[in-house]
Amino acid sequence: MTTLSDHQHTDHREATTVPPVPASPAAPRGQAGIDAGLLLLRLALGVVFIAHGLQKFLVDSIPGVASGFGGMGIPAPEVAAVVVAGLEVVGGLLLIVGLGTRIVGALLAVTMAVAMVLVHLPAGFYAADGGFEYVMLLALASLALTLAGPGRLAVDALIRRRRVR
């Protein structure tokens, strides 16, 4: 008679391994894939920040942005308008080339977090309603670059490699 405890014992034969599922030929593997992903994130984020910074300088105008900042209660709105617009343009360019990525990412993340708290949270989630979804995404993408760094396809990595020699 077979008991339940007889079936609970494991088979002592060698376990077979399941071969790994091959990656799609279009998907880079390992560090190359990570580097490509970080490059794409830097490029997209850089373009978005440059566009928003240029909009502040060329479309809204710095006095217009300062007026808006003042209405939101941001201290020293004239200075803040220039600093934020400049950070967006210069920071976006630096992200694209991958120079000072962690510092720029941190500065942009803080800027977006402040915008989220001071302006967008009260409007709810959806950006179409003035909500925080878009600035949250920009803040977290910037924070991701701060934490991960630029990857090997960046000026930062080139500088680091030359220092090691």
TrEMBL record:
It is found in: Cell membrane. It is a multi-pass membrane protein. Pfam families: DoxX. Keywords: Cell membrane, Membrane, Transmembrane, Transmembrane helix. Residues 1-15 have a biased composition (Basic and acidic residues). It comes from the Bacteria. The chain crosses the membrane at residues 39-59, 79-99, 106-128, 134-155. Residues 1-27 are annotated as: Disordered. Coiled coil: none annotated. PANTHER family: INNER MEMBRANE PROTEIN YPHA-RELATED (PTHR33452:SF1), OXIDOREDUCTASE CATD-RELATED (PTHR33452). Belongs to the DoxX family. This is Oxidoreductase.
